[in-house]
Design brief:
Layout (H helix, E strand, L loop, with lengths): L5 E6 L7 H12 L3 E8 L2 H6 L4 H27 L5 E7 L3 H12 L3 E5 L5 H6 L3 H8 L4 E4 L9 E6 L11 H16 L2 E8 L2 H7 L5 H22 L7 E5 L2 H12 L3 E5 L13 H6 L5 E5 L7
Helix pairs in contact: 8-9
């Protein structure tokens, strides 16, 4: 078992099968990996009952956990029929985030898989959700699953930025592409490469002088050449290269729909003060993307 890759599926505390189950089973199968499923449980009504009768709360909690374990085991049986080694666990914890991070660090999975929870802008403005905290701190690749049209992904998009390297961590583009490339090979899927550039600031600085067009053409040519060299180095075919001007999050969402992308692979970065409200591109996508994300954390050690 020590030499077997292991994936970690963080299941919803509700006893219902979600898209993340299907994606986790599919990836475990194509990667010949073991799968560990864990649910972090907490029911406020049961917990508060302990103020009245501690014995009763313990019995209620154990009964609930027993039911959840049985349900999770039934789901695991269906996955085991695919020839996958599956283990399950249910943990009672009031505030799961710290427990989840500790759990990941101890288990050392090669990937964490979880359902993506789309939150309203109001919730995001006042609360840091579990998904956002995992995006920032998960030490291994994090796969957030919003929708599964194909259990095994057929099209995988690596979103990179060959420029603004001062804002990125060293070799992040290479890690993003390598992660996407490996997944594409395992799934026999198409690998697409995207760079979204924004030159609108050039027009804003033009001041009506009419010089913006030539400057934009020059910059576009330079960025096109740099993107082309990056794509060439990984052997990405011409028809799977996407160089598009616009807002990164909006462009990615549009391309996911138009090209039928199953998984978007991109990096997570620290937010600066100016972008705190809007969040990073990854955070914006996590709240709108109709597909799935696979994120690479540049702050974690490279495997």
């Amino acid at each position: 078992m020590a030499d077997t890759e292991r994936l970690l599926l963080i299941a919803t505390p509700l006893m219902n099968r979600t898209p993340a189950f299907d994606r986790a089973a599919a990836l475990a199968r194509v990667r010949s990996a073991a799968l560990h499923i864990v649910a972090f449980d907490y029911v406020e009504g049961i917990a508060s009952a302990g103020l009245v009768n501690e014995t009763a709360i313990n019995e209620m909690r154990e009964g609930y956990l027993h039911s959840h374990r049985e349900w999770l085991e039934e789901e695991a049986k269906g996955i085991r029929h695919l020839g996958i080694q599956v283990t399950t666990e249910v943990i009672w914890v009031a505030r799961p985030f710290e427990e989840i991070l500790t759990y990941i660090q101890e288990l050392k999975p090669s990937m964490v898989i979880k359902d993506l929870q789309h939150e309203s802008w109001l919730t995001r403005a006042f609360f840091t959700t579990l998904d956002m905290r995992l995006l920032h701190d998960c030490p291994v690749p994090l796969h957030l699953v919003a929708k599964v049209q194909h259990g095994i992904p057929r099209k995988i998009l690596a979103a990179v930025d060959p420029f603004r390297l001062e804002d990125q961590f060293e070799h992040l583009n290479d890690r993003i592409i390598t992660t996407a490339e490996t997944l594409a090979e395992q799934c026999n899927a198409q690998l697409h490469l995207l760079y979204v550039y924004d030159l609108s600031y050039i027009y804003a600085m033009d001041g009506g002088m009419g010089e913006a067009s030539s400057v934009v053409d020059t910059l576009y040519e330079k960025e096109s050449e740099t993107f082309g060299r990056l794509a060439d180095s990984y052997g990405v075919p011409e028809d799977r290269r996407h160089l598009i001007m616009g807002n990164p999050a909006k462009v990615i969402e549009s391309l996911v729909v138009s090209a039928g992308i199953d998984v978007v692979v991109l990096g997570t970065v620290h937010r600066d003060v100016m972008n705190k409200l809007m969040g990073s591109t990854t955070e914006q996508l996590a709240n709108h993307l109709p597909s799935s994300l696979l994120t690479v954390n540049p702050r974690s050690a490279q495997p």
